[in-house]
Amino acid sequence: MNKNYNYAFLDEGSKREIRRSILKAVAIPGYQVPFGSRELPIGRGWGTGGIQITLSLIGPEDTLKVIDQGSDDSVNAVNIKKFVRLCTDVPTTTDTREASIIQTRHRVPEIPMKNDQILVLQVPIPEPLRIVEPREEVTKKMHAEKDYAPIWLQLYESLIKYKKITIGTEYPCMVENRYIMNPSPIPKFDNPKLNDSQCLYLFGAGREKKIYAIPPHTKVTSLAFDDVPFEKESFKGKKCRLCGNENTYLDEMFDSDTGEKHYQCSDTSYCKEVRMKCH
Amino acid sequence: MPLTEQPVLSVKNLTVHYGDGCPLCAAHLEKNRCSACGTVWAANDICLDVFPGEILGIVGESGSGKSTLMQSIYFDVEPTEGQAYLSDYYKGEKNIWMASSAEKRTIKNNIMGMVYQNPILGLRMDYSAAANIAEKIIAAGSRNAGQMTERAKELLTAVEILTSRMSEAPKNFSGGMQQRVQISKALANNPSLLLLDEVTTGLDLSVQAKVLDLIRKIIAEFGISVLLVSHDLAVIRMLADRTIVMLDGKIIESGLTDQILEDPQHAYTQQLVHSLL
Description:
The structure holds two protein chains of two kinds.
Chain A: H1 12-27, E1 33-34, H2 48-57, E2 64-68, H3 75-88, E3 101-105, E4 118-122, H4 136-144, H5 149-162, E5 173-175, E6 179-181, E7 200-205, E8 210-214, E9 220-222, E10 250-255, E11 260-265, H6 268-278
Parallel strand pairs in A: 2-3, 3-4, 4-7
Antiparallel strand pairs in A: 1-8, 5-6, 5-9, 7-8, 10-11
Helix pairs in contact in A: 1-2
Chain B: E1 9-18, E2 29-30, E3 33-34, E4 40-50, E5 55-60, H1 66-73, E6 81-86, H2 101-111, E7 112-115, H3 119-122, H4 129-139, H5 145-158, H6 175-186, E8 193-197, H7 205-222, E9 225-229, H8 233-239, E10 242-247, E11 250-256, H9 257-262, H10 267-276
Parallel strand pairs in B: 5-9, 5-10, 7-8, 8-9
Antiparallel strand pairs in B: 1-4, 1-6, 2-3, 10-11
Helix pairs in contact in B: 4-5, 4-6, 5-6, 6-7
């Protein structure tokens, strides 16, 4: 551990302020709590919101797992793990079951999370209404007054143009019938995992300086019209080329030499686990 | 028209001024600006009633306060003083300008429909015509996409826009078409009052005639009350049952449209009618 820094890099006052914001976020599920986003040795937009949440929560008893696009081995994930290890000495893992804190970008792990785990998501744009209203002052009022017609309009426009809802990631969801929330860029495949979950979900946006949360067993519904039900991505007829799984979220890979398309589990540690069991 | 009937809209003593005002204002008005303190009295003690099924026209030169009046009613401008009552809002017993902002939104969505002179203000130009209409229906609480599409088709047909173009964005439409989409959007939730702010200004004469025809047809079909602002006496003559003439933020003359046009009393109205002929 590098003794030149305070434990977990941030000073104690900063960590306390962030934890206080987290508590408020947990108390008002889906509500975006502003917080004083700190400087980190990583540029904003590279997961600083998630890192600040992780750093303010982590202690010697924790085990950390970091994934990026479902993968444990991507540059971003590896470097975040290295950075946290450097200033805490906390063990890291790739096993979803072993970790107490999982920081992630773009995916919720395939293995269901338990009640002693926290999933920290890195969020680029926390405001679900930003796409229909550029002014922060106005979106705040819209949330306060539950004026959500424009976001529904966005869904309807998609139906009119393409005969189906084409939003793939950041699919807006309603939290406890109060706040519409942006579930960060997870595919809508993962949206149902947010509902009535065992674990605590924390969302951190470093650049936009917002924290929000879904506590365990919160009702989270993906927006859908009465006559057009919510549908997640379907991988019917496709399976992972490594583990053969058909029920996971698959990445499409294109081999430019042969012109072939392959499908592969996006959650690499889950894929590995399935293969281990088979052998 | 029996005067015992409850008006759809009743505006009492509407005053909008920009600046603090001073004791000298009343005596020192230069047009609508106080020469002593510089306060602009955009609307000065306006009272009017719109009765069910009636078209009330408002004429006046630019700067006379027509749009201020209209925008106050549609909550785009905050009045300094005055009350307004809608028969569909607490049976006309509560001042709509005292409503909460959520209530104001409901009033704008369900009780009133607004058609602006500039369609950019009334439409989302990048969203399809159908979605523009659906926005109003969603805001009223519906979550059934099929019903929205049916209603959009019905309304676009009523304003003579081909339903095959309903998935196109209004920015690709002609000015006249944009205005017609705006009208259909305003009618989405069967409002009891339609506000038309210079709807035909800026359109060429043949399109103007078409839009006016359409408005007349729709008013008859939907049995809606209308407040119509225009500086064009031809439009007023064609549509309005009663007319109010405004000058420098005040109402200077009001009466049946024919009466105003045939026998104007105020010097300004006389000049206005004269310039038409």
